[in-house]
Amino acid sequence: MHVPLLLHDFLKRAVYHYPEKTAIVDGDRRFTYAEIGRRVNRLANAFRNKGIEKGDRIAILSPNRLEMYEAFYAAFTLGAVLVPLNTRLVPSDYDYIVNHSGAKLFLVDAELAPLIMPVLHQLETVESYVSLPVPGHDVQEGWLAYDEWTSSASDQPVSVHMEETDMATILYTSGTTGRPKGVIQTHRSLYMNALNTIIHLRADDTDVLLHTLPMFHVNGWGTPFSFTGMGATHVMLRKIDAAHIVHLVQAEGVTVACMAPTVLNMILNEPAAKDMQIAQPVRVVIAGSAPPPSFVKAVEKELGWTFTQVYGMTEVSPFLTVSHIKKEIQEEGNADRIHRLKAKAGISMLNMEVRVVNEDGEDVEPNGVESGEIICRSNSVMDGYWQQPEETARSIVNGWYHTGDMGTIDQDGYVDIVDRKKDIIISGGENISSIEIEGALYEHPSILEAAIIAIPHEKWGEVPHAVCVLREGHTATEADITAFCREKIAHFKCPKSVQFVRELPKTASGKIQKVVLREPFWKQAGRRVN
Question: Is the dihedral of CA 441, 447, 453, 454 positive or negative?
């Protein structure tokens, strides 16, 4: 008998095995799994009372909070599709995404309602709006108040016939050009990723997960599913604040958190972290631009946290690889090699076939030098882009998803990201990796953060340009930075110019927005890098 892989079964398991255990900590609010189970049932029935049926889309604009977690499971129980929205977009983006997804109901955090009001009358498919409560913020006229609306609904379970191939979420990616694309993830694709997360991140019922990563970002890397299934406790974080993160790690006994490197860098440089007193081991899971080995070493030495690098993207639910250090490498005892490997994307996860191929589609030599595009196939790969078959066909070719990332692979199977195709700088015919230059910059004692972008050059076509944030109380000049890089990497790879800024533009998940940094340079040149 075929039993479908359905995401709401993760919560069912937690409610059954851990009914009295704390499931959610959200500020002063704490709920057990039994209480969460009843709340999710009430929300699912409230959805159904508003006419939500299997296949209907529900949009949600919210930071990490209890009600967003509940919305995932309530929607899945009905066979509805959740459309989480990035909280750092502009009103015109919400206009496009909500209409393109065809959302029938819209949940909005009360503090974020002003982002929706300018385009409210342009949202053609939305029939009802629900306000998620925030102290000091009123419910918009005509909107439903979440607590009042759900309190009158039944807490009896809802049963809908479903298949694992049914849609679960549509996640809109923020492209560098054109409109965002809606990534379709099914129950099966997200379920398989959740299993990978449980196995490779070693999730269990002793864990306390801090939701440092926004849950709208690839469903918080699937952690609302994987860690729930194992009976872990979830601690919500509404906004990134390094001092508050340090406080929560100590006060709530946090054992695991997922984040972008820039967020971890903030914690590493937070004064309160120097005096942190914790008894529990902490695992930190990082994805994004590969950090230099010195950064990995600093995290493990100064914070005492175990560092794990993963690599993935929205279209793959999201994990492809993990920087697991094989037993024979551990036994060598070469600390420098281990730190270098931990900074790499790592080896392929279970249920994930990963290749690095050249322009002819042939596997590159596994020598850690020859680079090519990373491609993969798996049950975790998206079904496609919502209502964009041409884009789907360009991304998935003969069953293989083409990531657009360039990398190498060594004889032990470790993948190392060289760059995004669009971020490789081609200067005078030479390919230059922005990641390699950034790795050198992060070793400079005065640099807190750095990004390398390509800017136009009359002679070379384009050249590397460094945008740097200095540590508080430190000074440096363009000449200092250039000279430092020349000691670390080939001269032709060094930045030809350096710009100092107070902060780098970032996405809500903490990734540096290079497209924003490039824009003024290429706008003047009359063309853009892709």
Answer: negative
Q: Please check whether residue 74 lies inside any domain of the structure.
A: yes
- CATH code where residue 463 lies: 3.30.300.30
**DSSP states along 333-370:** T-HHHHHHHHTS-BEEPTT-EEEEE-TTSPBPPSSSSS
Among the three residues 176, 192, 208, which one is the final residue of a domain in this structure?
192
Range of the domain at 141: 8-192
Structure pTM? 0.85
Does some domain include residue 25? yes
Q: What is the CATH number of the domain that holds 154?
A: 3.40.50.12780
Quick check: helix, strand or coil at residue 408? Answer: strand
pLDDT tens digits for 211-231?
A: 999 999 999 999 999 999 999
Q: Which residue do the tokens 């949009």 mark?
A: 59
Whether omega for the bond prior to residue 318 falls within 30 degrees of 0, making it cis, is: yes
| Residues 525, 523: Cα–Cα separation, whole Å | 5
Tokens 């054992």 belong to residue? 255
Residue 260 has pLDDT above 80, yes or no: yes
pLDDT category of residue 237 using cuts at 50, 70 and 90: very high
The amino acid occupying position 262 is T
Task: Check if the beta carbon of residue 70 is closer than 8 Å to that of residue 159.
Answer: no
142, two tokens: 């005509």
Residue 246 lies in a domain: no
Burial of 59 (0-12, 13-18, 19+ CB in 10 A): buried
Q: Please identify which residue in the block is written with the tokens 């309160």.
A: 272
Within-domain flag for 143: yes
DSSP conformation class of 444: S
CB 529 within 8 A of CB 518: yes
Confidence class for position 292, pLDDT limits 50, 70, 90: confident
Cα gap 468→341, rounded to integer Å: 26
* Distance, CA of 331 to CA of 223 (rounded, Å): 31
What's the number of domains the chain is made of?
2
The values of phi and psi at residue 181, to 5°, are: -105, 140
* Tokens coding 198: 């449980």
Q: Which residue matches tokens 């809802």?
A: 158
Mapping DSSP to helix (H, G, I), strand (E, B) and coil, where does residue 502 land? coil
Q: Are 34 and 76 in contact (CB under 8 A)?
A: no
pLDDT, one tens digit per residue, over 145-164 is: 999 999 999 999 999 999 99
Residue 529 has pLDDT above 80, yes or no: no
- What is the DSSP code (8-state) at residue 120? G
pLDDT of amino acid 526: 45
Angstrom distance (rounded) from CA 462 to CA 428: 8
Residues 98-151 pLDDT 10s: 999 999 999 999 999 999 999 999 999 999 999 999 999 999 999 999 999 999
Contacts of 440 (CB under 8 A, 6+ apart): 292, 484, 485, 488, 489
Of 141, 167, 192, the last residue of a domain is: 192
Angle between helices 66-78 and 8-17 (to 10 degrees): 110
